[in-house]
Amino acid sequence: MANLTQTNSIKALSTDRTEAHFSDWWELTKPRLSLMSVATAVLGYFAAGPALDLSLFFSLCLGTTLAAFGCGVLNQWWERDVDAKMERTADRAIAAGRISPTAGFIYGIALALTGVVLLAYKVNITAALLTAATVVLYILAYTPLKRVTPWATEIGAIPGALPPLIGWVAAGAGFSSMGWILFAILFAWQLPHFMAISWMCRRDYEEGGFKMLSVSDATGRQVAIKALAWTIVLCLISLAPLREPQFGWLLLVVSLVLGYAHLKPAIQFVRDPGNVAHARKLFIATLLYLPAYLGALVVDRFFI
Q: Where are the domains of the chain?
């Protein structure tokens, strides 16, 4: 194990590039993951059905993007020593030494603070406070707790579920029940999503010293059962918006179809947890579920 870790570190430091390029600064922001969070905030905004204010909408998009980018950078700054030990992350710019920890920290703080301040001035203080809470919980709770307890996954699902609520309150809908339903849907969605990832990447997590359930569960059965349990919860919560008069048959049909597509690989994972292919199918199902469900929520709200 020590030799593998050393080899990964050497590989990262012996890359063809020893100085940071633009792509390094860009990848530090974890753009794919960050922009998914922004997309859920935008869909939360539209789900509230506001009269479109282009200035406010643009500020919501930019503010949440900057804050999400800041989270991505600060996460890599905090975990630079762990990233250097894992093959799939050893070439990240801070872990590989192309960007200094100090520069990475300043970059992340600047992005996050700019995003929160922009939301406070151009959207509303509630959206800004929720965004600040997202950053703080993600960096100061979820990130360090991954090395301490498997429950870090549930804790990390809290900041991960806040973006649609941020979009909802940005639209002026306040803390109404539908906003919290969106929060609950995102919370439940993350658990099977991350259970699948953690089983596929369990060797990396073990090398990095993360206290993930997949590391302590040698058979994968506990991981699979938790994934199935939260899939069932997700399917049930996804029907909750139907009690609101603005949602109807389209959301019902999409919820049932997506629920089946999500449940099938989750059940297969429980039946044969040792087969990584089932975890991969569940992971793909989660990727398809979220945009399809939230998209149906908006379409049903405005066009049906």
A: 15-173, 176-304
